[in-house]
Amino acid sequence: MNEYxxxxxxxxxxxxxxxxxYYITDKDGVAIKFTLxxxxxxxxxxxxxxxxxxxxxxxxxxxxxx
Length: 66
Fold this sequence. Notes:
The chain is mostly helical. The chain is 42% helix and 9% strand.
């Protein structure tokens, strides 16, 4: 099986890394590829590091900032 090797340009792109390199564990303990949901994408596109997110866990914002 041929494994994809990312280019340096892709590795330098934070959004590409978030959607392609990272895995999280679901409620059943299965590792799944992390992809940004709508709330996370909005936080990413804005200056999320300066925001206070109420109900962050319910919106799925915790994995993005962790």
